[in-house]
């Protein structure tokens, strides 16, 4: 196993709340998949959950080493919980091709939030070992 990249991001929940209030569905449809919107809206206060996913997507593009380049779109990344509640990413389009080209076979995502902040960490892993020639 080799670590390909790591990213971390911190988002103010109020910033995401403000984006939702000001831009509504335009913002939500640009940044979140239908399944993510459905998941986050299950909660009485959806903003921290949207903020956590926003931070996770930022952390993922940092781990990929690209940032949000012109070819990567927010909705090519989807973060949903598995049966135990662990956030699991799924990728489509350019993001999926880029991760495959980098040899990424597994992601470790962690999301945490309070009423004020959401943070996420993304660790990209490849199944092959990186070896270095002895010095």
Task: Describe the overall structure.
The protein is of the alpha+beta class and 135 residues long. It has one domain (2-126): Ribosomal Protein L22, Chain A. The chain is 39% helix and 30% strand.
Give a summary of the structure in a few sentences.
With 135 residues, this protein is of the alpha+beta class. The protein has helices at 13-31, 34-40, 47-64, 93-101, and strands at residues 2-12, 77-81, 87-91, 104-113, 117-126. Helix 1 (13-31) crosses helix 3 (47-64).
Q: How many β strands by DSSP?
A: 5
Tally of domains: 1
What is the CA–CA distance across the termini?
22 Å
CATH class: Alpha Beta
CATH homologous superfamily classification:
4'-phosphopantetheinyl transferase domain
Keywords:
single chain; 135 residues; alpha+beta; Ribosomal Protein L22, Chain A; three-stranded antiparallel β-sheet; two-stranded antiparallel sheet; 4 helices; 5 strands; 39% helix; 30% strand
Detail the topology: elements first, then pairings.
Layout (H helix, E strand, L loop, with lengths): L1 E11 H19 L2 H7 L6 H18 L12 E5 L5 E5 L1 H9 L2 E10 L3 E10 L9
Antiparallel strand pairs: 1-5, 2-3, 4-5
Helix pairs in contact: 1-3
């Amino acid at each position: 196993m080799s670590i390909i990249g790591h990213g971390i991001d911190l988002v103010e929940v109020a910033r995401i709340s403000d984006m939702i209030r000001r831009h509504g569905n335009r913002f939500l449809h640009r940044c979140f998949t239908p399944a993510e919107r459905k998941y986050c809206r299950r909660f009485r206060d959806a903003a921290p959950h949207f903020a956590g996913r926003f931070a996770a997507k930022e952390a993922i593009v940092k781990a990929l080493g690209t940032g949000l380049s012109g070819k990567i779109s927010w909705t090519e990344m989807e973060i949903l919980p598995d049966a135990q509640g662990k956030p699991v990413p799924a990728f489509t389009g350019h993001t999926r091709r880029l991760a495959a080209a980098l040899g990424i076979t597994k992601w470790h995502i962690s999301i945490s939030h309070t009423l004020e902040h959401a943070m996420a960490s993304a660790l990209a892993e490849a199944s092959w070992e990186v070896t270095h020639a002895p010095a």
